[in-house]
Amino acid sequence: MMYYRGIGGLGRCFDGSLGYMYGGGFLMMAGALIVTVLAVVLVVMLVKKARRNSLSREDRESLDLLNERFVRGDISEEDYTRMKKVLRSK
What is the pTM of this model? Predict the structure, then answer.
């Protein structure tokens, strides 16, 4: 009896009845496809977010210059926050 069932019932895959292969196989294939699509969508979203949050070299240099001007006292805190917001929104 155990030999006929196979390991975990896998013996039924090869006994000639197509119901198990097509019914179970289709559900497994659809589940794998859904998981794959979700993984691709997640990776694309993470890459887009990383690109949006990263600053270019010019933006970083501008932000460093703005920080230096604020530390030296050349600009007020209000001007600093306004200019910083403008630089971050690019």
Answer: 0.42
